Amino acid sequence: MRHLIGLAALLALAWTPSALAQPAGAGAAATDGTDGRGGAVIGDPDEGLQVIVGPAGTSLEGIAVPDARCLSGAAEGTCRMVTSVLRRDMTLSFFFQVLPPRSYLVSPDDEPLDDPAWADWMNIGARYLIKAEIRGGGPYDADFRLYEVTNKRNVPVAEQSVSGVGKGQLRRAAHRFANGVMKVRTGTAGVFDTRIAYAKKLAPGVKGIGIVDMDGHNRNVLIHNGSINMLPSWGFGGILYTSFRDGHPEVFFGKRKLSRDRGHYRSVAVSPDGARMVASISYGGQSDLYLMSKEGEVVRNLTNSGADEVSPTFSPDGTKIAFVSSAAGSPQVYTMPVSGGEPTRLTFAGDYNYDPDWGPSGLIVFASLTDNVSDIFTVSEGGEIRRLTQDQGSNKDPSWSPDGRYVAFFSRRSEGTGIYLMSADGRYQSLVSRGGGVSNTAWER
User: Fewest Cβ atoms closer than 10 Å to its Cβ: which of 73, 239, 382, 388?
Assistant: First the structure.
């Protein structure tokens, strides 16, 4: 067998993103407002956020987000935070383009919350307008408004008013209002208040499990026990992960050990209804996929083959799993019913296909390693493959957002190394959390 997906290979991919070499000149930054591939780079440098727009990207709708108005003793810093959250969320929507604040003709201090100067907003090209008003020195009251400038009308949004909240809750309230903006504009609520888990190298031979908000803020290491912790996934309202804390790889939920035997656990996935799990386990040989109860009891072997099977991920309805198998001689993506049966091979190209994640839309996103460069693709159950990244350094560890609108992934490229978000078609991409040593990104859902 030409390739085996043993623990050493798995750890190499999980530990050393720097090993995914970037070819000379790949992803070179352009200096003319483009991304070097015929696309554009947009965003507000004042917010420290840029969006790379691919050549086929559609035009974004102009939206103005003036500074939040401070009243009744509200601190300027608090209002700036709310403004920043709203602008960042709208930028990361990949649906709106936040117009440069320096172009605004209206001062927030001179314009009441419920009485926009329509002509002034129309003159700068705004199709939509978001306004916010913060009151009090903490706890805070806040009102948010969305206006459709072209039709001179207020657009009601869920959770557009909150009262008696702390600063952290105020940040969440701004995210939730932004979710509502996406709901009224697209029919699907946003996911700006969700989080992304990841494995983080802390020292030689030491990895922790970290978490970061979708917009790149509130980055923290949750699990740090002086050992190797990796392969986080979401379930039961929290994070599961594989840890070497007790000398061999086992599955934990928070600080509680779920695995009950001496098997070597590679990764685990929880079904959408939270009723069961599937884990990749080795009992002295190759890894097979096993069905497990939510309490951690191994129920039965699903694959029972001579090949390695790793990286299980459930279909949206929980009836199937996608996974990686070496049955064809190199790692490829397969699917099979959770109830058992013969696997179906989905990918036939690529030297090393790995890390699949089955998304809400039915597409499976995965990474493919060729000539030491990793890129991200999607594949349908019918085998139709679409490339999402190309000539942009090395990209790995993709994970779908809860709404299927975005993919989080780790990238090493000239624009910066860290956790990126991109639209489901790959046309819009943005670095949200800078820094290396990150792997195994997993979006909360």
Answer: 382
